[in-house]
């Protein structure tokens, strides 16, 4: 065993221990941290994804230390013992969690604030973060932007990619602009005009990562009334035609080592009259999406499969797909429409990788490698060489 | 002498360790209240005379050890297992080594070590043996002292959490709904959260978090920025506690669900309970009161001059907000005007109408349309272990009402049992109710008497209320067979062997294993 490999083994599972292992030869970061939770409606689901990831990475070959970083509903950061179970989060922050602070700026990141006898902040040595946050600021670019400012490397979408994926209206507009098939989608507010398409309608939060807040309504008046009432629609809402006969088709896409597409699944409706796959269908039950009723691979025409794969490739390039995303389509069996992109899907959609089969651990290791090999943000100050400042004269004269 | 003395000292030390582990667990279960361990020691003596005998033996051994040190071995041996029935590890809840528990343990052990050290300083090994023997005898009392000493420390630490929570509240600025009452707080809180879901962004205190520690935790760890409504359940064991919670939570809407003999031994009287609960109204803009409770109806009259009072009822159609039984469904009436009937799906949890009326009043106060509220009353959630209905593998119906028990709720559960198996066997399994002060014996006896008229057999669990329940059953007009078991698992085995399709069993209350 090489000296380096032995050191890596020694650091395995070191809770709360700052170590100095550095980067592995193949570019796989050795000191990783899994980030989950967050002030989002999908906080609880994110905990499940995060704990699955911590479990899969602990002891994975090439990974030195795995930290478990919990972002609470109220927005605080904690480091949690790697052995924590979902039930430990039932009452709030799990016992023995250590509170952290996120510091921006060069050399920033997560620190354990000093107190009492230990005056100095302790910086957590982390080579890459695996982001497992669903919905809210963990998937809309906020967290990504904050991490860019700390200089930490992370998996999944970039700040702008996440923001685009979270904005249903902007995403659909981009699809239409690129000439790709998408259903009508218009902004909805309290004084919106009747749209050009016929009821029934489906009302969705403009910003939101799941089916939370989505309602099917019979007429336009009801749709407009819901905008004021439903708290999930306060930040913005979109209106779409509701086609009873259409069903969902989804596939996963990942961007490392190169763009790859998974098998296509067809989620099945469970409740009689259940219009869409609801939050409870998706997540209630400890296995999350893995146990939701589905057809995998979906029994559809080969031509439809080909069409969806071709569209998925185009969408991936348009949105600058990074990490492991899920692309959702709607189909009536003949035509297919792009519905939305989920940039950090529940369980990172690992259950969709059936051919070729991809283990959860391998998927996570590829994500982490991409995090460092293809950083999400690169800043540049080229052009700000002082020439503008030199000729500017006094600021006061500019205002006069 | 040295060898025998060392053995005696070892035996007493072992007894101290066992006693500490045992009583630390009880202290944790009893919310670290100083004095709780003395009370529980008495409970174990009072309900099992053999524990009284053993205690006397242990003290006699310790006293004799002053003259004959080996007598301390008797003390050590006895106290290692005392009181019989209270295990070191525990069945229902293990000791959790939290920060607070560690501190209590540290101070308790320090007190015990101090005693032994002083004994040794004054009279060498034999002094140490006597001191250790008496420390073992007095372990629960020494831990009570440690709890008392640590109270100011815990107070300071708690204030830190309160300050942080106050800061979070000032940032997020939710409207706070405070809910208190002797019974029905958790149910009402869950009903409010259910009625508001999809209309307001709501955070409710989880589980039964209802004291300062639980509520600061709710605010510090659960209050997501952007939350519009915080529903806070507030409990109290005495005067001033609700006022203290209100000082930083500042509920704008205050709800009192009921006044009853819960925690009566700490309140003293129902009048004092009412005054303690009424503290929640002091700074509130709107007060919602369950006027099915005569004391709360009285309070409503008193508050009319100073507050906007909303009278909620599960029976009075003329109340400001009434949720009434209507066939299989619930009807919402506002000042007598009907707003619709919602029929719950078959098999859903049994709704509690007075709590539903209070929750509806809150939802309406927050601007929900009456039609929306009326419709949502059809899908009220249940509280886990609060009158939940399952079907057992044996085909009989299980009513699980083990959440905690009070006289009114227990009668309600008996009614449910009666309608579950009108022709089959109806079994009641219960350890009785606790925390009822001087009325505990009579309340349990009259509950048993009422049960005898409804059920076909009674299973008494444990010893805590055994005598009272047996007395009630004897007093009853209809005689009913009674079976006595040691703990709940034994009762479950018994009911499985006895019941079949068409039968029903009600599990009324469950006591953790630190109760005899």
Question: Could you list the spans of chain B in which at least 5 consecutive residues all have pLDDT below 50?
Answer: none
Distance between the termini of chain B: 40 Å
Q: What helical percentage do the residues of chain B reach?
A: 40-55%
Strand order of the largest sheet of chain B: 2-3-1-4-5-6-7-8-9
In terms of DSSP E residues, the strand content of chain B is 5-15%
Overall SS class of chain A = alpha+beta
Overall mean pLDDT score of chain B? Answer: 92
The unreliable regions of chain A are: 1-25, 271-289
Q: The biggest beta sheet of chain A, please?
A: 7 strands, mixed
User: Within the CATH hierarchy, at the fold level, what is the topology of the largest domain in chain A?
Assistant: Rossmann fold
Q: For the record, what CATH class of the largest domain in chain A applies?
A: Alpha Beta
Overall 3D form of chain B: globular
CATH C-level of the largest domain in chain B:
Alpha Beta
Q: State mean pLDDT of chain A (0 to 100 scale).
A: 86
| Derived structural class of chain B | alpha/beta
H/I helix tally of chain A: 12
Number of helices of chain B: 18
- Specify the helix fraction band of chain A: 25-40%
CATH architecture of the largest domain in chain A: 3-Layer(aba) Sandwich
What fraction of residues of chain A sit in β-strands? 15-25%
Overall spatial form of chain A: globular
Give short descriptive properties of this protein.
heterodimer, A: 400 residues, alpha+beta, Rossmann fold, D-amino Acid Aminotransferase, Chain A, domain 1, Dna Ligase, domain 1, 3 domains, seven-stranded mixed sheet, five-stranded antiparallel sheet, 16 strands, globular, disordered N terminus, B: 516 residues, alpha/beta, UDP-N-acetylmuramoyl-L-alanine:D-glutamate ligase, Protein-Tyrosine Phosphatase, Chain A, nine-stranded mixed sheet, six-stranded mixed sheet, 51% helix, 15% strand
